[in-house]
Design goal:
Strand 8 and strand 9 form a beta hairpin. 12% of the residues lie in helices and 37% in strands. It has 187 residues and is mostly beta strands. It has 3 helices and 12 strands. The termini are far apart. The chain has one domain.
């Protein structure tokens, strides 16, 4: 049985949940495992229902969604910027700079893609952890690089850093209904 606690500003509709049975609660595991980019003009279609498989498939087929099905990476939500306070508040909070960093091991074949995507300003990122889709609400700044080190035992891979500035954290959605699109076999 779970309990719902409402607290904070009285106009908040967000609730905090707790579980009185910790062994029964789901745990989400780390690493960004899959991800990609949505053309900003197609974001409203996906945002209307992020679990709509047909919308994802149509976006992939039209080229409005690029899937990157096998990556490893991390996400840092950053801290909100502190702004001037008003009234009795010492500060207020603005947008945060969030950073999604990932590595793509498919090197030679993805040269054209990563060389070009860093020049785009209309790509909204998303990534998947163990079972949750994390969907941003605005475009990201994408920086792809292919560092070659002086080491005979290191891989040359694509290292991608994506910075998104927004007041909102990425929305979270279970991937059960759309899990089939996060596989190389789909392409």
């Amino acid at each position: 049985m779970g309990y719902e606690y409402l607290y904070g500003c009285t106009d908040s509709s967000a609730a905090h949940y707790c579980h009185d049975c910790p062994e029964g609660q789901d745990v989400e595991y780390g690493r960004t495992r899959q991800g990609g980019f949505i053309n900003a003009s197609y974001l409203s279609t996906i945002a209307a229902d992020p679990t709509d498989l047909a919308a994802w498939e149509a976006g992939i087929a039209s080229g409005d969604i690029t899937m990157i099905p096998e990556i490893s990476g991390s996400f840092d939500p950053g801290d909100p910027k502190e702004l001037k306070g008003y009234g009795n508040r010492k500060v207020t909070y603005g947008a945060r700079d969030m950073k999604w960093s990932f590595n793509d091991p498919i090197y030679l074949e993805n040269y054209a893609y990563y060389n070009e995507i860093s020049k785009r300003a209309n790509q909204v990122p998303f990534f998947v952890t163990a079972s949750i889709l994390h969907l941003f609400d605005t475009v990201g700044n994408i920086k792809a690089k292919n560092v070659v080190t002086d080491d005979l035992d290191t891989e040359v891979i694509w290292q991608v850093d994506v910075t998104v500035t927004s007041r909102n954290l990425p929305t979270l959605h279970a991937i059960d209904a759309i899990a089939s699109i996060f596989s190389c076999a789909v392409f």
